[in-house]
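Supplementary Note 2. Why include the ligand at all?

Several targets in our set were suspected to adopt different conformations when bound, so apo predictions alone were not considered sufficient. For every target with a known small-molecule partner we therefore ran a joint prediction. The input for glycinamide ribonucleotide is given below.
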Amino acid sequence: MTLQLAVLASGNGSNLQAILDRIADGALDAQVRLVLCNKPEARALARARAAGVAHLALAPADHPNRESFDAAMVAATREHGADTVVLAGYMRLLTPGFLAAFSGRVVNIHPALLPSFPGLRGAADAQDYGVTLAGCTVHFVDEQVDHGAVIVQAAVPVNAGEPLDDLKARIHAMEHRIYPQALQWLAEGRVRQEGRVVRVLPRLDGKAVAGIPDGPWLVWPPLEPGF
Ligand code: GAR
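The joint prediction is reproduced in token form.
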């Protein structure tokens, strides 16, 4: 069923862009009903404007506490008819009230192979630690930072001595593939969660997917055609 998305962003919005692009080319069965930002200068707002998508900046400073701010976010999301909330570089912790309003329908992307390196510096922390495989994770959101059940991960090799920006760019490129893919699995009703464990059900058309990577990375569950 077509997903009705609210995308929450704080910055650049390149994941928002990837989602808009996959919707435009027909790979992702979704509509972005609203882009919500907590920063008025976020480039994500300009991307929404360019795509003709409703967008809104809400200022935390206009609210006495997190609960009140998140209640305004819930109201805006509902008013625009969104049923699924996509965090795309949204750098605030959601309150229990927000999560209860969209129970089981809030997803996030993080630039690390969770549970390693949660927080604001996922890729940098992985590089500083010296891991040889970095990556990114799409997961359901719970009340802890970068913590909910994992839907899909992509592993990306770390090249010794490379600039952090190069590693970040390669991780970002994979984010832009796995996030729309995870959303399409949700749209197709193929995502089952049992406790912490998520299973992606086989394709409805019965076609097997080889899952053989076309580059120096690995995505699991494997990407399907279009992503
Ligand atoms: C992305 O790398 C995303 O994984 C990260 O913020 C970036 C936003 O980029 N999120 C987190 O670190 C969450 N803890 P974008 O604005 O270009 O989509």
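Residues 164-187 form the longest helix (24 residues). The chain has a mean pLDDT of 96. Comparable summaries for the other entries are listed in the accompanying table.
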